[in-house]
């Protein structure tokens, strides 16, 4: 297993894109990683856009990014809620400064925009937030996945296999 012993934060709030959260969690666990589901409250059940639930393991406030090897931000409408928490933005900035893998798909770029870590970075996302990404100083490209150092970005559910292949490769190399 490529990721044995690696610890990953999977952020969650309501209205996450079901596949964009669950597919990465399952793939990473298949590779031996420990994936903590982290929401506003520990033990809370969050519901995806299509009704698939997930229960959080930990609360935002209880997380020390130094204890983790990577972070994933789901897509859907969840990123618009997540970016309102200073603890999330601080967590993302900490992971960025430590050059730990940061995975973002679809609308997840909103969190990275609010954390102010995209200037000069090459990324992709759902075309719906292309202008937001560019206005944050990123170079936006319409391709399935982009790896720019430790930031791995992807567009939407059909790109999940490419996204996770690259995320796993970056995390395994750390």
UniProtKB/TrEMBL annotation:
SUPFAM superfamilies: Class I glutamine amidotransferase-like. Residues 6-168 form the DJ-1/PfpI domain. Keywords: Glutamine amidotransferase. Gene3D superfamilies: 3.40.50.880. The keyword Chaperone does not apply. The keyword Calcium does not apply. NCBIfam families: PfpI. Belongs to the peptidase C56 family. PANTHER family: DJ-1 PROTEIN, DJ-1_PFPI DOMAIN-CONTAINING PROTEIN. This is Type 1 glutamine amidotransferase domain-containing protein.
